[in-house]
């Protein structure tokens, strides 16, 4: 019994102090919600925690687009690139984070790539120039992406001081990101971020 109690005490000491959820609302200066913004949280209290996300690590080629437009994965993840179109695709990236080339392959075929360094990896198709997407490789378990409502929720974030980063491929800022300090309480927290976006290539608006 004593051994069990000591083990439980040690686990309690090693575990970070959990807060509630961090909810982040990202909007343009005119109040429009920003979709596909990636919110990450770096906290000393959460260091060393395993990184796992619930969504599939997949970027499909479908309807001559990449789906999803932005994918968030942990460092060391292997991402699948299935082709669901009736035409062939040639997926590549010139990013220093992960340079790769998946040469022409057809419908119902798939290729995989392992992303072993954190950072942003832009994707393209050598056949269809309009196809653009991003793999955001993170080294923190506290990450989420905004939906159509411009809201991202990071579950079970650790209490205390942390650094929050908001990234979007069209954000008008250095490295396409904003960084701000935040402090979470036992009830979690709510943050609002104003993101000034440039026009995406080949589009009249976003």
From TrEMBL:
Keywords (A to Z) from UniProt: Signal
Domain of life of the native organism: Bacteria
Name of this chain's protein: Methylamine utilization protein
InterPro entries membership: Cupredoxin (IPR008972), MauL (IPR034242)
Position of the signal peptide: 1-19
Bilayer-spanning residue ranges: none
Species name: Phenylobacterium conjunctum
């Amino acid at each position: 019994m004593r051994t069990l109690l000591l083990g439980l005490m040690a686990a309690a000491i090693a575990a970070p102090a959990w807060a509630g959820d961090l909810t982040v609302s990202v909007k343009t200066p005119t109040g429009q919600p920003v979709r596909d913004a990636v919110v990450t949280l770096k906290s000393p209290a959460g260091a060393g925690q395993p990184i796992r996300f619930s969504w599939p690590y997949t970027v499909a080629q479908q309807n001559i687009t990449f789906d999803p437009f932005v994918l968030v994965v942990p460092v060391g993840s292997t991402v699948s690139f299935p082709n669901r179109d009736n035409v062939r695709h040639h997926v590549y990236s010139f990013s220093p984070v992960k340079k790769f080339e998946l040469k022409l392959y057809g419908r119902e075929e798939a290729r995989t790539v392992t992303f072993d360094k954190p950072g942003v990896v832009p994707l393209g198709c050598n056949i269809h120039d309009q196809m653009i997407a991003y793999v955001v490789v993170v080294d923190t378990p506290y990450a989420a992406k905004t939906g159509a409502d411009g809201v991202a929720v990071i579950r079970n974030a650790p209490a205390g001081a942390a650094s929050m980063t908001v990234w979007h491929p069209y954000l008008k800022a250095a490295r396409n990101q904003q960084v701000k300090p935040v402090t979470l309480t036992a009830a979690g927290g709510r943050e609002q971020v104003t993101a000034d976006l440039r026009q995406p290539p080949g589009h009249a608006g976003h």
